[in-house]
Amino acid sequence: MAFDKDFNYTEDFRACPECDLIHSVPRIKEGEQGRCIRCGALLFVRHKNSLDRSLAFALTGLMFFILANVFPLLTFEMEGQAESNRLIDGAIAFWKAGYWELGIVVFISSVVAPSAVLLVLITLLLPMRLNRSPYSPQMQIRLLAHLKPWAMSEIFILGIIVAFVKLQDFADVSVGLSLFAFVLMVAATVMAYMTLDEEALWSRLKEIRA
Amino acid sequence: MTAPVTAKSIGAVSCHVCGLLVSNRFIAEHSPECPRCEAALHSRKSNSLSRTWALLIAAGILYVPANVYPVLTLISFGKSTTNTIMGGVLELAQSGQMVIAVIVFIASVFVPIFKILALLFLVVSVQLGMKVRRRKRALLYRFTEFIGRWSMIDIFMISILIALVKLQALATVTAGPGAIAFAAVVIITMFAAMTFDPRLIWDDERDDNDG
Ligand SMILES: [Zn+2]
Ligand SMILES: [Zn+2]
């Protein structure tokens, strides 16, 4: 490997985020991956039509997220009395019971972060699709990186399944329309992330700004 | 015996958000921000080991109330049942829901303690300058970081039950104080995993034959 000793910053080389080893950026084909030769961390990915696909999945995800908030998730029936819950009701119930810390945690991880991830992706990729520069791409990309670990929709789905199984023992529970919408929203979000190629994002931004 | 070529060894920093490789000279002359994404640049996470230690000790202390205090109470027809985290798992197993019982056991009982012990091992191994099994330790870190969030299953399950089961005397579920301690353990260990810098595992590597 030959380095220009006086480089300012470079896109030709990349350090592994997990062990710091330098790799020259390989020419890999679309759909291929490159891993760190020392620690095995995923370093390089290329996707076909990455930005368009990611935008399409993010828009689909947002549509399902809105639907998931409209209908009940589960309906619980006992002796002729029934009760349903919506997505945000869990956070509200914690808050009302005096467990406001848990209300905030559940609200952020099941409502705010999952929807913010989709909104940030859309406000980033939609203007780029129309050949315009997004409002503040740097801030939006940093925000995306920080939001990611706190969006826990996929875990929320397992929480719903466990609650469903527990209730089945002593009452009638039925699944609401929102649950299907929520599952589809999670699938679309995962796909939006998986298809997003960050290097393609930066090079497209450069093109638009030039 | 040659040292591996790392960003640190060539006098550069890799941006933790966008991965751009920026030289220390550029940082000194221009700004401590990434020229591409404007994130603050650090060669290594600052005070990684002592911060991770502090978070792990806090998580270890909270692990006790998280498991001792009840996380939820069900009142139905005047009869009340109180569950701790482990009690909830046992109840699922007793009602024959083995698959769900195993999932909840792994997510709520196994994962938190595994995470605390794995991170403790990683921090201590770096502090003792352990030179073997670096790749395995890197894998352990990646795995620990990945599984941590899944412990939130129980918190979401409780939030759904208290929102749904509120038919007064017929059936009512209320949350217990153990839930706060449990959520705190999950979140604090997530921060502990984020604070630990996996590059420290490799920083003193001199040759390639000790993987
Ligand atoms: Zn590596
Ligand atoms: Zn950057």
UniProtKB/TrEMBL annotation, chain A:
Its main location: membrane. The keyword Transmembrane helix applies. One of its GO terms (cellular component) is plasma membrane. The keyword Cell membrane applies. The chain crosses the membrane at residues 55-76, 104-126, 147-165, 177-196. It is found in: Cell inner membrane. Pfam families: PqiA. InterPro entries: PqiA-like, PqiA-PqiB_transport. Keywords: Cell inner membrane, Cell membrane, Membrane, Transmembrane, Transmembrane helix. This is Paraquat-inducible protein A.
From TrEMBL, chain B:
Its main location: membrane. Keywords: Cell inner membrane, Cell membrane, Membrane, Transmembrane, Transmembrane helix. The keyword 4Fe-4S does not apply. GO terms for cellular component: plasma membrane. The chain crosses the membrane at residues 53-78, 98-126, 147-169, 175-196. It is found in: Cell inner membrane. This is Paraquat-inducible membrane protein A. It comes from Sneathiella litorea.
